[in-house]
Amino acid sequence: MVRLEDELLTVAEAAALLKVTRHTIYRWITEGRLPAVRYSRRVLRLRREDLAELAQEKGETRVEQPESWAERLAPFMGIITKEEGELLRRIIMEDRRASIYDPD
Q1: Burial class for 51, CB neighbours closer than 10 Å (0-12, 13-18, 19+)
Q2: Which of 18, 34, 49, 70 sits between 20 and 30 A of 62, alpha carbons compared?
């Protein structure tokens, strides 16, 4: 089951992270080796946790861990204030939550 705090990746992002082709990702999904979340006929997402488990099975020990929102915004510090950064993070998270329930 997908939770709001799960980081969901596109097939292209997952393929780049595991250094395989998109075709391989689709094949693993079809074979049942990699669970996927299908939002519609055209929208498919993969949980980062599932990719990490698959990477361990393949013998790769490392799948990059996501940076916190603060680490992602760090290069922009001084350009925006801490309050503006928090507002930006809140807007992004609200949009993400809304997109989970968006059928398109």
Answers
A1: buried
A2: 70
30 phi-psi bin (left φ>0, alpha ψ -120 to 50, beta other) = alpha
Amino acid symbol at 45: R
User: Rounded distance, CA 63 to CA 85, Å?
Assistant: 27
- For residue range 40-68, list pLDDT tens digits in order: 888 899 988 888 888 887 765 555 555 67
Nearest residue to 44 via CA among 22, 83, 71, 11 = 11
Strand partners, 9: 46
Measured CA to CA, the distance from residue 37 to residue 39 in angstroms comes to 6
Tell me what pLDDT residue 96 has.
Answer: 83
Could you give the maximum distance between any two Cα atoms of the chain, in Å? 48
Q: What is the pLDDT of residue 11?
A: 92
Is residue 10 predicted with pLDDT exceeding 60? yes
Q: Are 22 and 15 in contact (CB under 8 A)?
A: yes
